[in-house]
């Protein structure tokens, strides 16, 4: 239940490169195009950090015959054993960093163009495109780090949990 791969790109449309460790900072991942203000969609549609499930990549590879394992999905963190959609509107820890799941990450025509494989955008649809997250507390993230759900960012859930613990 953790990070299996980490990818960053120096600039929009640049190839994704695999790294073993990255520093999450205010605004994203150090060295990644969106954190550096050089993403293809900067400033219109920026996700500080993007996550995708390895299970979705495997499904796309096995069932649809498209190869996305080398970063063609254009997402930063690849996870295993984590239901990413459960992290939406939740704080979660990855390595030393704390992130907040903000929204699903829909596919786009640009990702298909860069992957040079027809059908990539459609394959990343149906909830397989992963999620976006914001960096709440900086820290290092490495391959092998666990993803730990810290709970909802909705204050109502926190209040209910506290009241239940006082019983």
Description:
It is a single chain. The protein is α+β, with helices and mostly antiparallel strands and 167 residues long. It has one domain: PK beta-barrel domain-like (M1 Pyruvate Kinase, Domain 3). It has four helices and eleven strands. The chain has helices at residues 54-64, 109-115, 120-123, 155-166; strands at residues 2-8, 17-19, 21-25, 28-29, 49-53, 77-80, 90-94, 97-104, 131-137, 139-142, 147-152. The strands form two sheets. It has an eight-stranded mixed β-sheet with strand order 2-1-6-5-9-8-7-11. It has a three-stranded antiparallel β-sheet with strand order 4-3-10, with no helix packed on it. β3 and β4 (28-29) form a beta hairpin. The longest helix has 12 residues, at 155-166.
Amino- and carboxy-terminal Cα gap: 32 Å
Q: What is the residue-mean pLDDT, rounded to a whole number?
A: 84
| Rg measurement, Å | 16 Å
Which class do the helix and strand fractions yield?
Answer: alpha+beta
* Strand segment tally: 11
**Strand-residue proportion:** 25-35%
Low-confidence residue ranges: none
- Quaternary organisation of the protein chains: single chain
**Residues in helices, as a percent range:** 10-25%
CATH topology: M1 Pyruvate Kinase, Domain 3
In CATH, what is the class? Answer: Mainly Beta
